[in-house]
Specification:
This protein is mainly beta. The chain has helices spanning 2-14, 64-67, 237-244; strands at 29-30, 39-44, 47-56, 59-62, 75-79, 92-101, 115-119, 143-148, 163-168, 186-189, 204-207, 210-217, 228-232, 261-264, 267-270. The protein has 3 helices and 15 strands. Residues 1-16 form the signal peptide.
Amino acid sequence: MRNILIFSLLVAFATGAPQDISERIAGGTLAVEGEFPYIASIQFERRHFCSGFIYSERWIVTTASCVYGRSTSQLDVVVGIVSVIQPSAQQQTIAVSSISINDQYDPLTKMNDIALISLSRPVVFGTAVQAIRYDEVDETINTAITMGWGATTADGIEVTKLRKTELTLPADCSSYGANEFNNNYMICAGSSVSSPCQYDEGSPLVQNGIAVGIMSKNQGCGTPYVPSIFTRLSAYYYWLNVVGGQQPIPAATTTTTPSTTSTTASTTTTTIVVPTAPCVNCETPPTTTTTIVVPTAPCLNCEAPEPTTTDAPIIPTAPCFNCEAPATTTAAPIVPTAPCINCETTQKPTTVLVVPTAPCINCAL
């Protein structure tokens, strides 16, 4: 068993398998979960080889040198992690849909060293997974922080735990040739106690929560440390907008005390506020109760209900001019209580003599 274990360790070192050597990294400190929720591990055939940052739910920003000549089928992007070995609660591994390299990229000088990776599905944001906005360098601040899973020594391999380090800017990049450093498109940053290394390419350079650059190149990570060169993100705002679209406005986190609406889980309770002042053009619910008004004054040409059976003659109680007495049999009409002019009564087959009680002029008997 002992021989098998020793043989396995030798194979691991010979094949270059990742090792947990975080305790031996010179300079910098270990990051904790959620400290840099925007960092992304770009993996080639399931092994970390570059970094990037979350630009939006569908795009990752990295350097062109990271993905130049790579096939999308060989790449994956992992977010929400601190360790490449131990899984995290919000860890997401997403396939790459396409790669967009700046068309002015020069692989020899690494000028215009920037690229966008399109993801096959959106990133699910959480406390340990967030996008970061980019902007110009804040010249009032002479420090910035970078992080990654890069090697600890020259020609070393990647580490398994995310580490961070603080760099000073602007640093002196005079050791680079005139065609290797251009201040308009690059940032020079360094430290006397630490340095990015291989496998740190694409790692963001951050000031006060704003990404200002991505690690492009350096002259190795051996001592004495030489400043590193970062791609200046603000110089490529037009290209980023064209390819990846403008970054979404970050969601504001506010605490409010609702007055008329309260929301719990999937249930929403709404309280309608009734105005206490005069209301113009206010809509009120339609009424459903209708009151029939019965007139108490004389009614002309009113339809009377069906008469009842009686043989009593119709005796007008007021003078009747040109009234024709209808012939009735058994039905008695309604006796009006007010003068009735030109009132017609229902014709009946039997004639009953109507005896007027007032003078009747031209009455037909």
